[in-house]
Amino acid sequence: MKEIQQGESLLIRDVEVGRARVNIRVEGGRIAAIGADAGGEAAVVIEGRGAVALPGLYNTHTHAAMTLLRGYADDMPLQDWLSTKIWPLEAHLTGEDVYWGTKLACLEMIRSGTVAFNDMYFFMEDAARAVDEMGMKAQLAYGFIDLFDEEKREKEIKATEKTVAAIKNRRNPRIRAAVGPHAVYTVSPEGLRWCAEFSRQQNIGIHVHLSETDQEVKECVEKTGMRPPALLDKCGCINPRTVAAHCCWLDTADCTLLGDRGAYASHNPTSNMKLAVHRAMPYAWLKDAGAGVCLGTDGCASNNNQDMFEEMKFAALLQKFFWNSQTLLPAEQVLAMATANGAAAMGFDGGRLEKGAAADIVLLDRNAICNTPLHNPVSNAVYSCNGSAVTTVLCQGRVLMQDRVVPGEEEILEGARAAATNLLTRAAEARTEE
Ligand SMILES: O=c1[nH]cnc2c1ncn2[C@@H]1O[C@H](CO)[C@@H](O)[C@H]1O
Ligand SMILES: [Zn+2]
Q: Where along this sequence does the record place binding of substrate (predicted)?
């Protein structure tokens, strides 16, 4: 696969976009021209015949390195799952584990057409190294959890400052830092306030879990007299740089608050169904309130993959099923959630196949079963295909996969397998020492 050098051009020739056959010319990481007459000489030419082009997908809520925990603990209640299975194992994670887990997540996302993701986890400097090598875009946040303890809060503040400085020091415009206050049930109001103030100072995003369960909302009201969005807002955490994951249990006033503040809600339907949170994000209320609505997979322990095509389908189906409406969340709107809205939520300029936009381009096999017949490419992308129809992926003009080949795949699978085995071994040894 040829690396395009800075200043070189790339041409995708004769590809279908919507119902039209076009050429897409890429220069300096952007779409320089798109249309039947776009063309000219190019350093790299990709044959688009037999392919349908879509904008690259943006995954707005995940914990990438949790790929290592895929299949480790399923079919459990959320609080029990977190406190008896996930957190005890995460206590043994190393930076090296997070590096390999994130590499595996990137590989999986690239293979299924995702060019960018919004991540909240630990050892984010190692995650940044993985993202850098894989050529994707990401917004990376250290998961801030103080459990209402002042000493822990000081540690989390230091960890956040260190992570943000390290990510900014990379000076890679594709990799952004964010703050990641985990949720209102794991972070004190003081911690939330610090996160809000630090994100303002640093001009970076906020990534938080919000109103995932009924229990979270009830306990928050009992403790503070406020619902979670109002509490977050009082602490300064709800603004246009905020991506709030889940948002299942919002009421109409909560939605108005998010809309008034210009914040984004990331829908994560697979995780919500698997963890039986018993309510679907109120998409229609959020949209009417003017909030941004985007889409994420959540981590592999609650999904169990990183395929945004599956997520698009589940979003469209869950909304219809839960809110009892056959017309709610049509395919075009799901695709917008997964592309342009996601890019806006992370502050990236992408997710659109238009002149001037970042060249985030995904090619799907036009001759795959899921694309046959091709009455409506958007319908097929949302309802029929999954990520395995993706053949070629460009992120900001850089080719991350061509004809289903991602460089270094075998090494990534081996490294991730070893990291997962070692993590479980360390955790088991620690248990026998107790
Ligand atoms: O669905 C979820 N709800 C709440 N927390 C979660 C979920 N999935 C993963 N984590 C946890 O969030 C932290 C991120 O830094 C990790 O501890 C991860 O296990
Ligand atoms: Zn999550």
A: 90, 182, 212, 298
Looking at residue 330, what DSSP letter applies? -
Q: What is the DSSP string of 167-208?
A: HHHT--TTEEEEEEE--TTTS-HHHHHHHHHHHHHHT-EEEE
Which domains does the chain possess?
Answer: 9-55+357-401 (2.30.40.10), 57-346 (3.20.20.140)
Burial of 95: CB neighbours in 10 Å, binned 0-12, 13-18, 19+? middle
Q: For the chain, give the number of residues.
A: 434
Please state, in angstroms and as integers, the Cα–Cα distance from residue 423 to each residue in 93, 301, 305, following that order: 7, 15, 20
The number of the ligand nearest the C-alpha atom of 122 reads: 1
Separation of CA 55 and ligand 1 centre (Å) = 28
Q: What is the mean pLDDT of the chain?
A: 96
| 178-210 tens-digit pLDDT | 999 999 999 999 999 999 999 999 999 999 999
- Please give the pLDDT value at position 106: 99
CA of 30 to the centre of ligand 2 (A): 31
Task: Check residue 2 and give its pLDDT.
Answer: 52
Pair of tokens at residue 207: 């990534």
State the distance from the centre of ligand 1 to the C-alpha of 367, rounded, in angstroms: 39
First to last CA, the chain: 51
Rounded mean pLDDT of 88-107?
A: 98
Residues with CB under 6 A from ligand 1: 63, 82, 86, 90, 120-121, 143, 182, 209, 212, 271, 298-299, 302
Contact between residue 58 and residue 138 where contact means Cβ atoms under 8 Å apart: no
